[in-house]
Task: structure prediction
Amino acid sequence: MKLIFNIHYRTNWGESVYISGDTVALGGNDLSRAVRLEHESDGKWSVEVEICDTAGDFTYRYVIKRDDGSVVEEWGKPHRFVSFPATGVVRIFDSWQVRPDDMPMYSSAIAGCVNLRDTPANSVQPAAGFVTICVEAPMVGKDETLVLCGESAQLGAWVPANGVRMNSAVYPVWKINLPASCLSAGTQYKFVVVKTSDGETVCWEDGDNRHIGVDASVSEATIIQGLRVRCNKLWHGAGTAIPVFSLRSDADFGVGDFYDIIPLVDWAVSTGQSFIQLLPINDTTMTRSWMDSYPYNVISTFALHPIYLRLEEVGVLADDSRREYYHRLGQELNQLPKLDYERVYNGKEAYLREIFAQEGNKTLNSDEFKSFVARNSSWLMPYAAFCTLRDRFNTAEFEKWGMYAVYTPEVPAKVEREAPEEMNFVYFLQYHLDRQMTHAHNYAKTHGIALKGDIPIGISRNGADAWQNPRLYNMDCQAGAPPDDFSVNGQNWGFPTYYWEVMSNDGFAWWKMRFAKMAEYFDAYRIDHVLGFFRIWQIPIDAIHGLLGCFYPALPFTADELRDNYDFWILLDIHTRPYITDDVLNHVFGDMAQQVRSRYLDSTEDKRYKLKDSFNTQRKIRDYFAENNDIENAELICVGLMNLVDDVLFIEDPVEKGKYHPRISAQNTYIYRSLNEYERWCFNRLYEDFFYHRHNDFWYEKAMWKLPLLIASTDMLACAEDLGMIPACVPDVMHRLQILSLEIQRMPKEFGVDFDNTLKYPYYSVCTTSTHDMGGIRQWWEDDRNRAQKYYNEVLRENGVATAGAEPQICRSIIDLHLQSPAMLCILPLQDWLSIDGKIRRDDPREEQINEPSNPRHYWCYRMHLTVGQLADSENFNTTLRDMIKKSGR
Result:
């Protein structure tokens, strides 16, 4: 078969167009053997290639090679040639692929879930004497069809009802065969979206009329592909956010599991929703205590958490008495109002060990199991070895594992020889977790519901990832966040930070593997703390609070720069060590000041004090009082001493010695108050420049170095949590990459504004009323009466005094504002959806908060107070919710 490839591309001097594909005739994907196209005229390039009739399907892409040796490639997936009965000559007219302006519509969330349609029985095949037109149109809804409508009678004479309906067998690509005899290069046409049922026009594509552009031969097959519909058709959707562990059904064992997602999908479909958002589902098992309930402290970014297994789907115990024992235990745990993490985990693990003893060999010998292990061996074997050693040494702190403290590629096989049953048990669990989550994911996809996952910004320092690849992480520091409304001392997550330069050496392979694994279970994702891809808040390992952190990477000041540019003379012995004077001690400790002076401090020559060496870091202070908590006023003294450690004006950069970061929120320190008025003015000026202007271009480049590669590695819809101290460069990057932002009305991004205007949200955004890190709208309303009153009068435009509690009608008004916003997605916590119905919502809204960010040891134990089945049976609520969503156009 002779294929003639054609493409229009205006090259610059020293550039040529090549084609490279996974067939021998196109170089076998080896760019050095790519085939050069010949330039004809006016940017038209073509090449003739002989393809063996038995070559089958193949993919290919165009590249630009420059004289300097550099190469420019197309965006996205390669072109695909689908073989068909030979016709002698096939002319292919391609378009150079660039990132589409509506890239989220091409995501698997929209094209693969929300708009996924039944596949027609027959697809369109090119044929001699026909022009095959192929166009990408993911925005066409399930109940809609794409029509090609043009000037000729055969194309409907510009009447969409008479146009030619296209075939969606390979959606989101639509195809049609048109007889070459009725077309010419000048034939004009457009694509039109119509209702499938009655042909009613939904929208014409934008822009000028298209032209066929080629004179097709009746003896050849002509393919025009790579087109995209230019349609300003904005899709809006609604969804629910709920952690898996918070789900409740009659079949649960005291915690939500992957099979609970299935009835939740049915409920979402019945109420007109299209998204379900979950928290991280990866394994966090370090201590088997409630402290493992924190879903962001994952020991593996690939392994799923065993607590989410539906036990009976793994296997049914043959022993009647044991089966009855676990049945009763499960019922007891499932009646509890909250998750009892330890009893649930231990109970499930015990059941799974018994079922493994009963069914394990059968599973391990199955082809499906062997295939799963082979596909995932790169992370699965090290993870299984980690779990085995964690249990053998009774700690996840791998530096305490003796000869196994340092990972080598030979360790997993060695551990497997030593403890084959333990390793196989871990494989067994992950195999069934994969099966169950995949089943839930596929069920959601086929019902038009996109599952949105959560990618934590950090990893556990005592986890399999850190053990296997320590070179990728800075274990001497901790990641966190600067102070915010959630935590005045900042947040210290304890995670190691990343060595991005090392990660870049293999093209960020670890991150790409992580995203690819995520794509097996989700079609959209929330990047937790996307700011970490610009810069991370890096805290010294000996600090407890987040106030002594600094941004990494950053551009710290030199002493000369502070002096010359800001007229601030940094005094290292004063501005970079804790400011402790008698006045400070009296203010902080009151009557205990003298006790503190004598026991924990040494005096200095400048009539100040310094902390004794055994108390000069927050970690030393905390550890001391943890062991000596019987000291009178121990907690007050501990907190006061740790606050003294924070009282500095500058922090020396941990790597670039002699360079300094102004301490975050330094205006709240005693050392700042000791400055004279002019010094404060100078400091405020350098502080404003450092935190809000100095790094914009620098951080923009850092983000664009990483994020484009990672986002392009999967088809998932990219969303981000972009809250907090947002550099000005962040919106620019997210807009360029079409990452959906997060918009929360009571956390406006515009300075000096109390509440965001929901009607001004950007289209590429996810709007929500609350997150798992805050109380719902009812709790907020009751806890902050002044702001609630202001909201009642200024946002809801109601007169008079606001009610003490957020009544259902108030909650409904708030939710309506969000549903009617321009945001592409409106995803609300289940608790806030339920708030509109006084009969089914929880009595006490304080029982609905999932996390308290200010408490690093918070117990994540929230569960729904009704089952998913009861939720589905709440007809009045569901009718109201469905009507609200439909009325909003979502």
